[in-house]
């Protein structure tokens, strides 16, 4: 339920502001990019991603730049700027690998795979998805996230749709998958 999620995030943002919690405010601002993306407010989203990417060149936490690169890569791809999307997804993956956290690397690998697939780089797209699935299998406590939709599309396009079900089997049995 996206609308409920957006309302809860708005409440989180308000609480962070009310209490002056700078880190929580920055996180909530980053999460607001989801709302802008899914509601089609791309004209507002693109400058935010660019501002966040620019800020991270000096001081902002790496986690925030990862979301910015994900959304800017998606927007560039949707607008036909394949080269820009490829650049963003490569930088995204570089930042994610530096962190090593599955919560960061899984969405980064999924976005990279999606961009490569849409760019016609099927072998590289398959390699990105293979890395993601291998790491997910090695991390049974990592829950599935929205990135699953991206890799499902790539795997289906590569004629490998059944692999997602195989990789997710243990996660769903543990109740860690999406509903």
Share of helical residues: over 70%
Low-confidence segments: 173-179
The biggest sheet amounts to:
none
Reading the helices and strands in chain order gives HHHHHHHHH
> What is the residue-averaged pLDDT?
85
Rounded to an integer in angstroms, the radius of gyration calculated over CA atoms is 16 Å
Overall shape: it is globular
Distance from N terminus to C terminus (CA atoms, Å) equals 11 Å
Main structural class: mainly alpha
What is the β-strand count?
Answer: 0
- In DSSP terms (H or I, runs of 4 or more residues), the helix count works out at 9
Kindly estimate the percentage of residues that lie in beta strands according to DSSP: under 5%
Descriptive report:
By secondary structure, the protein is mainly alpha-helical. The protein is 79% helix and 0% strand. The chain has 9 helices and no strands. Helix 1 packs antiparallel against helix 2. The radius of gyration is 16 Å and the shape is globular. The C terminus is likely disordered.
């Amino acid at each position: 339920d996206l609308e409920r999620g957006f309302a809860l995030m708005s409440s989180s943002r308000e609480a962070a502001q009310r209490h002056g919690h700078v880190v929580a405010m920055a996180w909530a601002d980053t999460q607001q990019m989801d709302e802008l993306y899914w509601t089609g407010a791309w004209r507002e989203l693109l400058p935010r991603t660019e501002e966040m990417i620019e800020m991270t060149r000096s001081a902002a936490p790496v986690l925030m730049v990862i979301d910015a690169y994900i959304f800017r890569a998606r927007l560039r791809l949707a607008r036909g700027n394949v080269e820009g999307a490829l650049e963003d997804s490569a930088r995204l993956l570089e930042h994610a690998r530096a962190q090593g956290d599955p919560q960061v690397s899984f969405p980064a690998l999924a976005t990279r795979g999606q961009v490569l697939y849409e760019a016609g780089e099927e072998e590289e797209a398959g390699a990105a998805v293979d890395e993601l699935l291998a790491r997910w299998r090695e991390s049974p406590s990592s829950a599935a996230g929205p990135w699953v939709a991206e890799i499902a599309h790539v795997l289906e396009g590569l004629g490998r749709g059944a692999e997602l079900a195989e990789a997710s089997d243990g996660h769903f049995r543990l109740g860690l998958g999406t509903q």
